[in-house]
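I have been asked to look over a protein record a colleague put together. Thanks in advance; the entry in question is below.
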Amino acid sequence: MSGKYWILLAKFMKLHHNILAFWIFLFITLAIFQSNAIAQNIPDKKIPDTYCLNEDELQLFNLLNRERQQKGLPKLELSKSLSYVAYLHVRDLYINRPDTVKGCNMHSWSSKGQWTPFCYPRDQTKRRSIWDKPKEITLYPGSAFEVVYYSEDKTGPVEIIELWKGVTPSAALIFNTGKYMKNHWKSAGVSIYKGYVSLWLGESKDPETKIRLCSSDSVINSVVSKPSSKSNITREDISQASLGQYYLIFGSYPNFQLARQAQIDLINDGFKNAFIFEKEGKFRTALDKYETMEAARAAKKQLPNKYKNAWILKE
């Protein structure tokens, strides 16, 4: 081959190399641009240091746990992540009103924040769920379910919990009845803002364990300690009997699981105050409790025939 041929080949290879380098450069540039664009749309999962829980929110959470314990349900851990999701949601509802869009309700989120907009139930699918919002916004590792509420009247924690208890869908979620019977909530988060209230319940533990109280230097450790017990059921799983009470007992069981199933059946049968307590190694399921023997006897007389075998236990 002549020297002229080799010169032409060298020039071609140099041109080819430059074109290849150009395309490689362009590909890397586009990849970096796309990565930055995606990053801008992904919310920062770090909860701001300015976030805190106010006194009404803490009271609402404590009332929730009290009501659950009275029904023999496990105590929940206060979740910073779920509370922060609730904090964002009530403000989004108040400011941006995503629930006013046709086909959307108060579980919806607007396009005005560092999250993916969602119209519920219109956008709800098996692959894309509103209940994944905690995973999207925070480090919370699982899905969670929300109870959301709005009132134009000033409503405090006591009124809110009483309302939720009296509404079947919210009561089922809070007390694990109906379609939530097989769920085992471990964490809960709450927020209250301008008449809006949001409660999130999840089956996963929150990696965020320290929550600051507003207008205070106090920090809550959200991890629930588990006292030791001779049985495999901890004290947090059982509603403890109070002295000076009269209990209308439906049944006595050798383990918590049997008592819990009886409690669920009672709740589904209309005994919304049914609860469990332990006495002398037995797990008792009570229909209700009363301050006097007369009140307990009067309630027993009103029971349907299939509950006539219930008896009164004095503490």
Notes: The longest strand covers residues 282-290.
